[in-house]
Amino acid sequence: MNSPQPVSFMPTSYTGYIEDPSILHSLLRTDLSNQQIPATHLFLSHYHAYPCTVVIQPSISSGRLHVPSIRRYLEMDHKHNSSQDIVKREYRHITDFLANLGNGIMLDCQNCRLINAVDNPNKYKPDGDHNHFLTVDKVRIHYLPQHDNYVNEELASKLSSFYVLQSTSTAIQVVCKYPTQGYYLRGISVKKPFICDISLNYGKDFTVIHHHIIKQLAKPDWKGIVLLYGIPGTGKTYYIRYLINELQEKNLIYFPSDIIRALSSSEFLQIIKPYSRSIIIMDDAENLSGDHPDQALTNLLNLYSSTYFVYSILSFRSSRNHLSHQPIIAAFNTYLPQALLHLRTSSIIQYCFDRLDINHSQILLKKLGSQRETETIKQPMTLDEIYAQITRETKFEHTRDSKKQLNTPDEMIQLLAEQELSLSDKDNCTLS
């Protein structure tokens, strides 16, 4: 790397140059009582010039800069001695630091904090217990004007690439049941999983479907069904968790698989009556019937009474108990009947999740950082197989906690509910 050479002099033509010592001393006597590292004062004292400044933020939205990676970069690429930095800490962890690279550039990093709800696409090692990472929302670079091109075109770009993603979450209602007292709803937060590229994870055709699903579910008067089906491991549940966080303005009710069969009970329908404008989410919807997926689909459409056109074509008979004309998102771990595949109506959005072809599998593995030779991939892969490959390569300790963080894309969404519910509530919920 061609980093700037040490400064030998300061051109007097620079607007920020301070030649008169009395002016410099006056500036240095200003109030320093705010308890932050006085980066501008120290730059003035060291270089006798007022600094140019640029603010660096992560190169991706919802990201936070990873502080240890920035410090390692300065040590390795700039031969910077970090032991000479001004550092403030709380307990063992840095809250602020100021690094003088000695060449007319200072890095000012303030208000660092540990976070643990992150996605980690750059595969950094945790900086604290329970997978905490030391992060900051922005870094300021103070510099002399002759370094303007280098700072803004190279250094800023490099620093902004050191990030983790702060996970967002959406509140949903999970249907639970007391063994003796009946059903109730429990609120939990569902973290948004990291999907680097929807088209890479699910195929280029799915991007259009995804935007169509979002558009329809955002409409206050759309009462259709989103049917997601395909073999296990193809990422249906992973996508549902992602979709949930795209619908933050909606009320969402999720049904664990062992409660799905209770959908037609009058007791249950009375519980969800106040939530008539909610979106119903069912994973493992084949549990609507213990016999066959065809029968499960029949049961689902019998519960759903807002689309007469569907019933007239498929000759399904309407049930007295229905879901109050609510939108439904249902995932089946199987391929659906051919009759449905040919059905085209504005009230049903359907998509078949399948293995990614060899080319897409190779590209996604490489994007996720796999060291596997692409030539060794000889057949299509499910997302489950792809993420399992990445998990094996990371060689993490398989403690119980790390196992939960390394769940494959098609893990059951109620596992997330179990993690969020308190122990006392879990004892009262029939979550499998």
From TrEMBL:
Residues covered by the ATPase AAA-type core domain: 226-302
Top-level lineage group: Eukaryota
InterPro entries, alphabetized: ATPase_AAA_core, P-loop_NTPase
SUPFAM superfamilies, per the entry: P-loop containing nucleoside triphosphate hydrolases
UniProt xrefs under Pfam families: AAA
GO terms for MF: ATP binding; ATP hydrolysis activity
Ranges in a coiled coil: none
Name the record gives this protein: ATPase AAA-type core domain-containing protein
Organism: Rotaria socialis
